[in-house]
Design brief:
The structure is a homodimer of 219-residue chains. With 219 residues, chain A is mainly α. Chain A is built from 10 helices and no strands. Chain A has one domain: Tetracycline Repressor, domain 2 (Orthogonal Bundle). In chain A, helix 1 packs across helix 2. The first copy, chain A, starts with 15 loop residues before the first helix and ends in a 9-residue tail after the last helix. The relative contact order of chain A is 0.10. Chains A and B meet through helix 6, helix 7, helix 9 and helix 10 of A and helix 7, helix 8, helix 10 and helix 11 of B. The structure holds a DNA duplex (18 and 18 nucleotides).
DNA sequence: GTCTATACTTGGATAGAC
DNA sequence: GTCTATCCAAGTATAGAC
């Protein structure tokens, strides 16, 4: 599903040469989406960056949109792998924010989340693309929810707000921060927020020691 | 019939005609950005939607990018007016979330924030556009900060996190929610979050009644 | 001053070469 | 099966008509 899911014309060959070309195009697409955005990710721009003929995009992927989706698949897979490995090391709630901060910076460096943002924003240009992108974002929500359950499952807040709803806002905030950070090139505001969030998590951890079950609104 | 007599208004009527055309192009640009996204907002698509000749974009605005920025200006102005009027009616912290929820839905209906998102995401395609967009987003941060100061200024949280930093995340979250909502067409998840946030605000208001006053460092 | 017809460039897609 | 040369549509911009 990852490589041929949305494709209609993808050659079914198992040739090594073909795989190399496809990989080069996917890599170039990621870089182009990051640097030039969705509207700058043309078949010509992508293939030129890879040093390949422009027609190869259509031979190997059928259309530019299919190549963009293949790139989104590659990014999603790589990110989910990294996220999962990171979250596996986390046991306490106080740890999660420092890990999250590290990952956020890594995402800024690689530009992977920019690729996601560009695909979401660009989805409205092509009929049907929105649904394809939405499908590929699904795992991000479930990952966020699992991470929340694992780290805040026994926190009093978990009783107030369903983790699925919070996961939605976490993803939204992450995308929004990425977008704003990428816009003005200054990552300080976002990093400040991560620092504040870490403080809040620690504070909540301390509070939950005093109020293990329900908020202290009772008589 | 000499022109001189009746033509005393020729210059003025000409100016008015120009203003009408410009306005039609700006309106069409907003609609096109909303429906087709940044990459779909070409001079041809915009002018065709307005029923005008494609060349008028370049006569009146010089370039497509300039027209896009003019549309962003129009949206920003309209939104800031609406936001300011709404916040003026708010005095208590418990009110702000219901007002915010209303405005969020209004933004979804009009597609105004989609225009902003598309411009941010599309900014990377054209050198120098990012800075222009960033300048136009500035007022959104100051508005969010003022709203936070007005409604949560005497809350204990204000002492924990600077309102400017929180404002940054509020804008980021707002953009992210808009983006995700626009992607899958389902506004329920976002509305749930606003409902949860309202509960939290009410809860915090109750808590601050028990907590001793922690005055933020006043200048 | 306002607008249209035309020139030129870039992009998506395919027929055909190897 | 893999890739290139070529075609046509869509985009930006301007010269010139009114």
């Amino acid at each position: 599903m990852a490589k041929a899911g949305a494709a209609s014309k993808v050659a079914a060959s198992g040739t090594k040469k073909s795989a190399t070309t496809r990989q080069a195009l996917v890599d170039s697409t990621i870089a182009t989406l990051r640097d030039e955005g969705f509207s700058g990710a043309s078949a010509r721009a992508i293939s030129e960056r890879a040093g390949l003929n422009q027609g190869l995009v259509f031979y190997h992927f059928g259309s530019v949109v299919n190549l963009l989706l293949a790139a989104l698949d590659a990014v999603s897979e790589a990110r989910m792998e990294k996220y999962s490995a990171a979250i596996a090391q986390v046991s306490s709630a106080s740890e999660i924010m420092s890990i999250a901060t590290q990952i956020f910076q890594d995402d800024l460096d690689t530009g992977y989340v920019t690729v996601l943002v560009e695909m979401i924003a660009g989805a409205s240009s092509t009929p049907g693309l929105g649904a394809e992108v939405a499908t590929r974002i699904g795992p991000w929500f479930t990952f966020a929810k699992d991470a929340l359950d694992k780290t805040f499952g026994d926190s009093p807040i978990a009783a107030l707000m369903p983790s699925g709803d919070v996961a939605y806002s976490v993803v939204a905030l992450y995308l929004g921060l990425e977008m704003l950070t990428h816009l003005n090139g200054d990552r300080e505001p976002a990093l400040k927020l991560f620092a504040h969030a870490q403080q809040m998590v620690v504070l909540l951890g301390a509070l939950s020691a005093f109020a293990p079950t329900v908020p202290p609104a009772s008589t």
